[in-house]
Design goal:
The protein is about 30% helix and about 30% strand. It is α+β, with helices and mostly antiparallel strands.
Length: about 425
């Protein structure tokens, strides 16, 4: 089987690594890929948003299976382009990817189908949003409606912060057209948990749980980022909570999408808040999380191609999804200054230290080749993932492994998975 993976970040590196393990796969292409993905795949310089070129390439190379991994191309209908060309594809169509692409849509869906979530209202006028704020309980959460690279959520601890947030999103258009609408949401307290689920449009199979750390600084300080590290499984996501979520969140969401004529095939990412009143949905994503994929995929026991193909074929009910009885922790090595401004192009040293070391992985997020060397090419550079018998040992292993890699401007949080130690 020939496989094309669309994307070029840490999530795509983790997917490519898993696909390369499949005995069914003879050749992998990645568009555009990165320096890490190049170990397993032939990288081709085609933008993830160029559906026409991607489909033409897939036809030329007689690709059997396509995996569209990032949010932007899914929201833009790149999966549709492959499917309409008769090429088997993993990833939801545009009309289903809207569950991530529009927070207003997802909030309306949850309200309509009684899926537990935070109370909220949506506004397309800054004036109306500001008026509503006067009646809102502070702290409050503001969400840009559209895709904003994981940065379009503002937690406002004062009325003045919220007022400024509305201005930033809707008037200053910091997140572009994503801020044409804003969702004002109640602030929920509790543990956050991410659960990624495979779906074929009818059947939904939850994967093992994970927890991301979004803030740039230690102790959850600083700006929101695309994710500074993660661990799996979450000790706070008990069997009882999992059962509740399956019956009240996961199954109803997939059924609701089907009822709306938006059959969802691919990975549904459910961000949960474990509140004192029970689990509630924080957000949906229409793809593997990044960096959640870097801790969930290494623990998957199944051949990932078998599972993805079952999602595409509508035969997921025949799959027995299994995960190893271990734990994983991923620490992101970033460029100092991320997510605002940072320098790129620094040589990354020590990558060879991971060769032959079982249970240790480096997943490239923002890297490229330059003059035969691997250099930094983004804010989040590399995810260092380590496996352990339990979360405490996985965390210890991951932090030890971060010392094996170095580059100028290297920055990381030092408290990823700290909650584990507090258990």
């Amino acid at each position: 089987m020939k496989v094309l993976i669309v994307g070029g970040g840490g999530r795509e590196h983790a997917i490519t690594w898993a696909v390369a393990k499949s005995k069914r796969v003879e050749k992998i292409y990645a568009a555009p890929g990165n320096a890490g993905i190049a170990e397993f795949a032939e990288c081709v310089d085609i933008s993830v948003m160029d559906a026409e070129k991607l489909v033409a390439f897939a036809k030329e190379k007689e690709i059997d299976f396509v995996i569209v991994a990032p949010d932007d191309p899914l929201a833009a209908g790149v999966a549709d382009a492959f499917l309409d060309a008769g090429i088997k594809t993993f990833g939801p169509r545009k009309n289903a990817a809207i569950i991530e692409a529009s927070k207003a849509f997802s909030k309306d869906l949850m309200k309509k189908y009684n899926i537990p979530c935070a109370a909220s209202e949506t506004f397309d006028s800054a004036e109306a949003a500001l008026e509503y704020l006067k009646t809102s309980k502070i702290p409050v959460v503001l969400k840009a409606d559209g895709l904003a690279l994981g940065k379009g959520v503002l937690i406002c601890n004062t009325f003045e912060e919220a007022e400024e947030g509305i201005k930033t999103i809707m008037l200053d258009k910091k997140f572009g057209d994503a801020g044409n609408k804003v969702v004002i949401e109640e602030f929920m307290t509790g543990r956050e948990v991410s659960v990624l689920c495979f779906s074929d449009g009818t059947t939904i199979l939850p994967m093992t749980s994970a927890q991301d750390h979004k803030r740039a600084g230690d102790n959850d300080t600083g700006l929101n980022t695309g994710g500074m590290g993660t661990f799996s499984p979450s000790p706070f996501y008990t069997d009882e909570i999992a059962k509740f979520c399956e019956e009240n969140v996961y199954k109803p969401t997939i059924a609701a999408m089907k009822a709306e004529g938006r059959e969802f095939k691919g990975v549904l990412f459910v961000g949960l808040m474990l509140t004192p009143d029970g689990p509630k949905v924080l957000e949906y994503n229409a793809r593997f999380g990044d960096p959640e994929a870097q801790v969930v995929i290494p623990r998957l026991k199944n051949d990932i191609i078998d599972v993805m193909e079952a999602c595409a074929d509508g035969t997921l009910d025949k799959v027995n999804l299994e995960f190893a009885d271990n734990a994983a922790v991923c620490v992101m090595l970033a460029s100092d200054g991320y997510p605002l401004s940072y320098q790129k192009g620094f040589e990354i040293r020590g990558l060879d230290n991971f060769k032959g070391k079982d249970g240790y992985y480096v997943f490239h997020s923002g890297t490229k080749f330059s003059d035969g060397k691997v250099v930094t090419n983004g804010g989040r550079v590399i995810g260092v993932t380590a496996i352990g018998a339990d979360l405490v040992s996985a965390r210890k292993n991951a932090y030890e492994a971060t010392e094996w890699i170095d580059f100028d401007n290297k920055y990381m949080r030092h408290d990823i998975g700290k909650a584990i130690d507090e258990q």
